[in-house]
Amino acid sequence: MAHTGGDDLDDLIIDDYSNSSEEEELEEIDDIPADSPLDGEGAGAVANQGLDSAKDSEKKRKRKEKNKERKAKRRKLVEERESDEPQSLAARPPSELASYLFEMTRKVFTDLSELELEDIRIPESAIVDTTAWTGPRTLDQLSPFILKVVPGLHTRLLMKSKANGAPTLIFVTGAALRVADVTRILKSKQLRGEKSGDVAKLFAKHFKLSEHVSYLKRTKIGAAVGTPGRLGKLLCETGKPQTFIGPPSMTSCNIIDALSTSALTHIILDATFRDAKKRNLLDIPETREEVVKTVLGCPAIRQGIRTGKVQLVLF
């Protein structure tokens, strides 16, 4: 949700200024001597003072109500941004999603022939059918979404992780703040058991690659949430070189070291959420390239998709 501190501060400053002015006026009235020419009007002054206090309280109450309405409208705008047009994209059947992902791949690899593109196409069978979900694809619905549409993933998230740095789920999203929000949802008791592994929060802002490598090598994780750039580096740039599975013109990738795919069963693409410019994860050229080349294009992941071990979910 957008930060509203600035507006609250402005309102506070205005409130303090107006309140202090009224209080000063009341103090001036209180300081009038008893034998003042205004003494005969004392009863009226007291009545006016009570009336002013009532008006002041009413003003404060109305300001609070307006603040609540303003914040509610902002929350609604965020929800609408998440659930407008992109939801219809993510809610499409696997056949249409396979075509959509193929078009995104074509945009990344403009120099490949149709035959080469077909060779790296994500098959329809690898995409989870989420058409049974008719609700909004917003973060407050992520847990119910997983429980209903991907129950097998929920079962695995409840299990104890066996190896360090080896999640059963990789959640790919486009922004660091979004990573933090998704991480909080996946850490909920609704999705995790007492023995479940940690939920890794992986993005470049504030964290060096070496810090994430060290964390993953010593930590058992059930899920990894991250931006495609950082996920790609942890999947592809922390191990020994390996021949890429696919056309020679595609970016070479390394075997997984820090972020292992040994337990990986699901990859969720955060396709519904849009940034301030109304772009989703694959609309932005930079993140689209990172998703296609270094995440979905990583040899172990591509092999898992081909063999049916790894399934793709568009949320």
UniProtKB/TrEMBL annotation:
Q: Which residues does the annotated region (Disordered) include?
A: 1-93
Pfam families membership: CMS1 (PF14617)
Q: Where is the composition biased (Basic residues)?
A: 60-76
- Which residues lie in coiled coils? none
Residue ranges with Acidic residues bias? 21-33
**Protein's name according to its UniProt entry:** Protein cms1
| Organism per entry | Marasmius crinis-equi
Gene of origin? cms1
